[in-house]
Amino acid sequence: MQIIGPTTFDEVRALFHRDHPVTRDHEVNTNEDADSALRLADATFGTWATIRLSRADVRSVLLPWHLSCGGGRELVPRTGLTVGQAADLLRAHEAEFTAANPVCTGKIARFRTAAFSSIYLTTRPIPHDHYADLPTDDGLVHLDGLHRLLAWELAGRLSPGAELTALIAGDLTPLAPTAASDSTPNATTGGPRP
């Protein structure tokens, strides 16, 4: 993980709304829910920063409970899974998830080739029902971008030299000792530029 620097919540919301309009017409549009999660994260943590993530960082992002866009099979249990664990689960049970969760797996399929865009994280779970059973240790916790993260990991698009831009709410101090990135600093893919 590479810390780029602080950003404002106004900048975070402007970027989010540019890339993810709440009025976008597609099946099970959760952008309004994500906007609410961003506002809750801002009220909870009050600080934001721009960071860049390596593939290893992305695989370690903790995902909250996800019922697969109203599908028949839970993708992420209430206790959470990392992006890496969820991707491995999808790989191992692709046919069952596709049959039980057509909307969710359709979103993942659509994002496999989509341009990279910023994702949104926190350093701890937000006070919301979907996050209630997650561990409260410091780390990278998902706010928005679950389908994109899974799609890019499943498609093998997060190469060792690429980095993904993320906006993160919370105190980065506990993460700073492990923040050294061994990836190429100029291989940014998506999101705001410093």
Provide a brief overview of the structure:
With 194 residues, the protein is an alpha/beta fold.
What does this protein look like?
The protein has 194 residues and is an alpha/beta fold. The protein is 35% helix and 17% strand.
Describe the secondary structure blueprint for this structure.
Elements (H helix, E strand, L loop, with lengths): L1 E6 L1 H11 L11 H15 L2 E6 L1 H6 L1 E2 L17 E2 H10 L1 H7 L1 H10 L7 E4 L18 E4 L1 H9 L8 E7 L18 E2 L5
Parallel strand pairs: 5-7, 7-8
Antiparallel strand pairs: 1-2, 2-7, 3-4, 5-6
Helix pairs in contact: 4-7, 5-6, 6-7
Compressed to H and E, one letter per element, the order equals: EHHEHEEHHHEEHEE
SSE-based structural type: alpha/beta
Please give the oligomerization state of what you see. single chain
Which value, in Å, is the CA radius of gyration?
16 Å
Number of helices: 7
Distance linking N and C termini = 15 Å
Largest sheet: 6 strands, mixed
Shape: globular
Give structural attributes.
alpha/beta; 7 helices; 35% helix; disordered C terminus; 194 residues; 6-stranded mixed β-sheet; two-stranded antiparallel ribbon; 8 strands; single chain
